[in-house]
Structure formats: C-alpha cells, structure tokens
Write a structure and sequence with these properties.
Layout: H1 3-27, H2 30-46, H3 55-75, H4 80-107, H5 113-118, H6 122-127, E1 145-146, E2 158-160, E3 165-168, E4 172-175, E5 180-183, E6 189-193, E7 199-204, E8 209-214, E9 217-222, E10 225-229, E11 237-238, H7 239-242
Antiparallel strand pairs: 1-5, 2-3, 3-4, 5-6, 6-7, 7-8, 9-10, 10-11
Helix pairs in contact: 1-3, 2-3, 3-4
Amino acid sequence: MRLTFAAQRRRWLAWLLAIAWAVLLGLMPWWAGLPLLSGLAAIQAIQLPRLQRYHGFLRYALRWGLAGLLVAAYLAFDNHRLGLTLTALAALAGFSVLVLLESWQDHKPRRSAAIAAASPDWKELALAPIGPADTLIELQAPYWIALDGTSPDAPADVTMVGAHSCRIGVDARIDHVEPQVSIAPGARWLAWPMAAWRGVVLYDRAHDKPYRLRDWQLYGWHADEAWLSRDEEQPPLALSHVLGQDVIDEP
C-alpha cells in the first residue's frame, strides 16, 4: 500500500475520532466535561517532555472538546433564548482562552532569563572541555542532495514524481516534501524537508516506515540516527528521544 493511502486513512480516522469526542462531550453533562477539558488544558500548559509528541493531539482534543462542551451547556438550559446567549458568551471566552494558550506555547521563549542566568547555554556546555571523551557526540551536518536530476549524488531509487512528491523504490511514496534529500551515513534513513520547510520527514528503509515531524528540522546525523532541533535556543535531540522511545535500564 502506498504511503499516501496510509496517510489518508490516518487523516480520516483522526476526523472520526475528533467528531466522536465532540459528540461524547455534547451528550455528557457539562459539569462532567468541564473538569475533563480543564485537565487537558493543564497538561497542555505544563508541557511535559514525555507528552511533547502528543502536542497536536491535545490541541485538537481541546478544540473539539470545547465545541462538545458548549453543546452540552446549551442543552442544559430550559430557557433556550437565555441558553443561546450564555453559550455564545462561553464560546467567545473559551475559544479566546484556547487561542491565547496556543499562541503562548508557540511564541514563549524556550529559556527564561532567570534560568539562562543561573545556568550556561547548551552551546557553552558543548564547547567546554569537561567529561570523558567517550561521551562526546559529534554530529555530522546534513548534506542535502537536489532531486531535480542535476546532482550525481542522488540515490537511484529516490525520484521526484511531482513538485512535492517523492517515490522510493517501486511502492513507497512521500508527499508534501521539498525536492531534496539527506542520507544517513549508514544509508538506512532518508530525510526530506516538509513543503515550505514546515518540518522534516524521515523514512526508515529497514522497516519501510515514515515519520512526519512538524516544526522539527534535521540538525545532523550520529551513529546512523537523526538528531533534530526546533530552534537555536535548544540543544538538538535524537530521533528516539523525540519519539519517546528512549529505554532506561533499571539498576
């Protein structure tokens, strides 16, 4: 099955889940749905590192959940005219709070002034000659290969089949990417910038599996693993950490 079919199936499934979530909160009493949405908003505001990969999911859950909560609040009023007025005011206030929360998350500084003053920046720590040599990680900068037919380094099994669509081998296809690719040192992983550089798409040849990571950019390669970064204020993270796949050995 082509990757585009899988992506469309996931998109339709996401829409069905969102509608089902809104309907569920619309049928629940408003006093039961309100604490549930408040808890989701608190989780979104805290931004726990282990839940970063569910960031977009929580946003959609809050948006659709608020719509369902407003329906439940309207149904709770016997006076439909008064209920419509109060529900409209609640919708204005609720969605305004959501917009402010999302805007704050998108634009807040990654390191506050107090934290920056108390601890050195990650770049300073990276340049400091501290620690054993075997823990030093040197990233290989990504080498981007143009897929417009002009680069002799382009892999033979990776070709563009449209302005923003790339085919890998015979069956696999990646859509909405820029016409350039970066190859891991071991050639297991491929990376493309998303269209308009909105993120990065990584493809695991060994397992025939793509990873589409919005708002992340490829920073470099190390030990055949991609290291990603959101901005210059944060240190790059390994793909396994971004996906929450780190394994901690218990003593």
